[in-house]
What does this fold into?
Amino acid sequence: MLDSCARLHLDRRGRLGSYLGCGLVGVVLGAAVVVALGVARALPAGLVAVAVAAPLVSFALAVKLGRILVGYERIVLYECLAAMLGGSALALWLAGQPVVQGLDLVMVGVATALVAGRIGCLRVGCCHGRPCRWGIAYPPGHGRAGFPVHYVRVRLFPIPLVESAVAAGLAVLGAATLVAPHVPGEVLATTAALYGLARFLLELARGDEDRPSWLGLSEAQWIAVISAWLVVLAARAWSLDRGPLYLGIAAALVAAAVAVALARRIPALALREPRRVRELHDALVALGSGRAASSSPVPTVAETPYGLRLSRSEPADQRGDRVVHLALSLASEPLGARAARCVAGQVGCLLHLGAAPELSRGLAPGVFHLRWTTSPD
It folds into this structure.
């Protein structure tokens, strides 16, 4: 069912890209929700107008500036969100409108727009998840458009769909808070804190590799931690009743950050990282097991930058089928059983074997063997 969503364009003629189309739908929905909330609360027309226009102008300027700085269009949600909130705050102040009240309205509109925007991400394959038994598989056309070739036809966890659902929940919560008696800033603070918590957790299942990271945490995870503490400070400044909730979220994110940074030193977890999966794919290709194997002589041993060693043999059985045997080990330390099972599962996904290869321990400590059967070419 989800596979039918993997489409680069919304129309059959390929004139309207899914990413742009869904983004435009999100803009319209976000603006409509902001206007509806403004009418429901009988807010000043100037406040509503700025809350609709300022985020759009700020977003466009942020994307344009990013293209000038890096040379290509780069849309990063947290960066654009900072630009939209900063630009909206400035516009509200210049227009003589209540800034914090206006930002509450802006935050609901942004959350609403994100619902459709993440559906666009799901369709084109950006912000994708990691290999999973349930999820979405992208066709070769996505690979030709820049999607990672080693994940083509590999079932991936639908991270954008989950984030779209999170955004929908936050938009509903924010709208419900706005139409009820509330303290200005409550919607902005609650949405930022809850989204940061959800985003930190969702990052653990992200499979796209080309993103900045530091000390084992992605850029988005660091921003989630920092923004949570900014919310704590804002809650004190604005005298919000949910201060203990925000403090609890901020403390939980710090603890989670420390745990994730330490856990990623464990081979069984480190080998699940997106770049390690790509390195494994490259090693399989070098050994002649990957889909992009060349016609040059095939080596029998390969080692990834992480230090995962693979050696291959391919005897034929009595029926003529090829029994592929792959030995696994680590250069720096003995390979553990959990890490070996992780690699076996990744090999099964990357080579479309339908299941993880048969796994057994070798005679030497820290050595494991994978075995599967393929038909001859």
Summary: The first helix runs from residue 18 to 40.
